[in-house]
Amino acid sequence: MFKKIYGEPKLLISDLLCLLLLLWFWFFLPSKLFLSPTSYVVEASNGELLSAAIAKDGQWRFPVADTIPVKFQQCIVAFEDQRFYQHPGIDVLAMARAMQQNLKAGSVVSGGSTLTMQVIRLSRRESRTLWQKIVEVAMAIRLEFSNSKQDILKLYTANAPFGSNVVGLDAASWRYFARAPESLSWGEMATLAVLPNSPSLVHPGKNSVKLIRKRNDLLDKMAALKIIDQETANLSKLEPIPGKPLPLPQNAPHLLQRFKAERSQLKIPETRITSTLDYNLQLKVSNLLKRYQNRYRANDINNIAALVLNVKTGTVQSYVGNIYQPENKELQSHVDMIKAARSPGSTLKPLLYASMLNDGFILPRTLIPDIPTQINGYSPQNYDLGYDGAIPANHALSRSLNIPAVKMLQNYKYQRFYDQLKKLGINTLNKPADHYGLSIILGGSEVTMWDLAKTYMGMARSLNHFNDYQGRYNPHDYDAPVYVKGKIIPRMPQDDAQINGVLDYASIWNTFNAMEEVMRPGEEGLWEQFSSSQRVAWKTGTSVGSRDAWAVGLTPEFVVCVWVGNADGEGRPGLTGVDVAAPVLFDIFRELPNAKWFTTPKHQLKKMMVCKQSGYKAGEYCKQTVEELVPPAAEKTSICPYHKLIHLDRTATYQATDNCEPTGMMVHQPWFVLPPAMEYYYKVKNSDYKLLPAFMPGCGDAGSNFVMEMIYPKQHAQIYIPLELDGARGKVIFNVSHRNNNAKIYWHIDEEYIATTKNFHQLAFSPAPGRHTLTLVDEDGERLVQSFTILSKEKD
């Protein structure tokens, strides 16, 4: 029987045709109806619109929203398609009614298309021949098969024309009412609902009388349908209609540009994101920066940026890449300074301090030399052009002294620090370590605000987690901050934690404590300690030539980074981190919730007896010691080199040797002794420093102590002597220190005697260009020999 049936050719052909028609019906609807480009949109974490950019085709067209306001659903269904929820895509009754009305009028006065058919028509953009209309009917039915009524409404709401270059409800609501559609009144929503019906003829700013009439008719219709009461309809009619389109908010334009550039990398299919930004904080920071920029422009300082990160969640709370004044092109406010690579000034110094603690090179208060220094022709200078002789490492950091920082880096090695910066997430070091050299610690490299804030956030996140992983470390603490809501950095399983971190907890804790000691900027340039304010670890930085002013600060909950300067790199007098960036930093912190200070990682710290005067690990000759909490690597640090046992005569008045005092009669006493050049400056600022006693008359040093040290120039220095204002050749100021305040020093250059100094050992001299040898001899025959080179024309 079956063979007989299927043997009929006609049956086979008809079945095949039916199958082909079914396949055509199922697949002729495109998988994606709308291919038009959409606007880039950035919303705050609470859904408020922050910024939007027009689509590539010049239309304001937002991506399809997840939800549709109930008011709009009710308005548009009442106005366009009352049986929308009952029909299968086409409304036969409406089509019959329209045909009857059109035939009676002799022209098209009514349409019978449903919202579903209008979605199809909006997606096709083709001339509407009879055949095209038939295809649209079929496609509308097909659309109903695979989509819910709510999905169809979403497509219509996002793609309906609202006049001018405005497409979709979201864009229309912001362009005409400057508010989100969810906040619109019945009168406002009814106004928008009637626009897609004839957007080219009726839209805000054009044919207002006709627009008002259509809106009022819809309100009456909704009252008749019992959607709203008549009183609400009458009150809604009194509402004014909008005028010309309004500009959209631009409260995070630079984050919008960043999202544009990174969308493919972030693997986000839509051009709309809900960001992690705090809406109120973003507006407060933007307004704060505008006020400061208005003040700084008097000094031709045009640009300012700020970034606020949430330490605990690893998210961006505020992103102001620049003041935004596109109308003033000379301000270059379109440049996102958060992404710009600039000289960081001194903002990397805490990272060196932490690294040296972590690797066992120093203790928190280890004395660091602060004396005139020249290294291979490189001569760093402190900001105040002064010298302390020697200063504890934590105070050198809090005072941001350059010479101690260079001395520390010279000891740590810039190659090692270069590698450490890369581990910490500084991604702008694109040249070999030798290119930067020691200047890397004073801003000789480049860094972005993003990387700098990310690094400090990583350190703070790591310290916050010291109890979470039983002494282990989460490498993801240093991951980049997240600005897209829902992409929060996940918590790492405890078993995946690593034994070692980039920096240990104790070193980070000590570093933040040192950074907290910095004094806050007060009014009129004075310094004051804000005892009532929250505890903040912070650091400022100023690049060479006063081109960049930085301030970065942190608490256990927030990291704030501020940059002030000119996008084109022009330097300005007074453009320093402490003067222009730090006040902004603390004003931003005033807008943030107070946070408790970091919990001391007691189990990660060890107690050590430390020499009170030198900050080194106490040796046998250190009589004044204190117990300090230090990082685990502190055991690798050296014993205090400045406490020595000296030998005095029986009266303990003079130093003595066995040439003039029997050994049994000597008094042996520990003494804190700095090298002569350090001592030369240290004794001025430390009145309790005790100079070594002089040797007993006729006894002599016998070469047992280093008594002279050259302060300037250093060994193998290269010196350029400039011309004075009168055109005469200038002079070099030679400076040497001697342990004996009353000593005489005889000066020789190239074995030729030139002068004698006593007490104050400075000499002004103008040697000829070329290499020279300086020989100094004191009364006891102690000699100091050094070489230097006078450059002939221009300093290399």
Descriptors:
796 residues; alpha+beta; 22 helices; five-stranded mixed sheet; disordered N terminus; elongated; five-stranded antiparallel sheet
Write the layout of secondary structure elements.
Layout: H1 2-6, H2 9-27, E1 40-43, E2 49-53, E3 60-61, H3 70-80, H4 92-105, H5 115-124, H6 130-146, H7 149-159, E4 166-167, H8 169-177, H9 186-194, H10 208-224, H11 230-237, H12 253-266, E5 272-274, H13 279-296, E6 303-310, E7 315-320, H14 349-358, E8 367-370, E9 389-392, H15 393-398, H16 402-412, H17 414-424, H18 433-436, H19 449-464, H20 505-516, E10 520-521, E11 527-528, E12 537-542, E13 548-554, E14 558-565, H21 577-590, E15 606-611, E16 625-630, E17 643-648, E18 667-672, H22 676-685, E19 708-712, E20 717-719, E21 732-738, E22 744-749, E23 752-758, E24 762-765, E25 770-778, E26 783-790
Mean pLDDT value: 86
Strand order of the largest sheet: 7-6-14-13-12
Biggest sheet features: 5 strands, antiparallel
Fraction of residues in β-strands: 15-25%
Rg, alpha carbons: 39 Å
**Termini Cα gap:** 106 Å
Structure explained in plain terms:
The chain has 22 helices and 26 strands. It is α+β, with helices and mostly antiparallel strands and 796 residues long. 32% of the residues lie in helices and 17% in strands. It starts with a helix and ends in a 6-residue tail after the last strand. Strand 1 and strand 2 form a beta hairpin. The strands form 9 sheets. A 5-stranded antiparallel sheet has the order 7-6-14-13-12, sandwiched between helices. It has a 5-stranded mixed sheet with strand order 20-26-25-22-23, with no helix packed on it. The model is unreliable at 1-6 and 522-532 (pLDDT under 50).
